[in-house]
Amino acid sequence: MRILASFAILLFAFASARADQLITNGGFETGTLTGWTATSNGDGNFTVNSGVTTPLTFSNTVGANSGTFYAVSDDFSGSQTQTLTQSFTTPTSFTSAVLSFAMFVNDIEGSAFGSSGAGGEVSLLNSGGALLAVLNGPFDTFENPMGAPNPYVLFSEDIASMLSANTTYKLQFSSTDSTGLINVGVDDVSLVTAVSTSPVPEPATLSLSAIGGLLVFWLAYRKPKTVQA
Question: Class of the 15-221 domain?
Answer without folding.
Answer: mainly beta
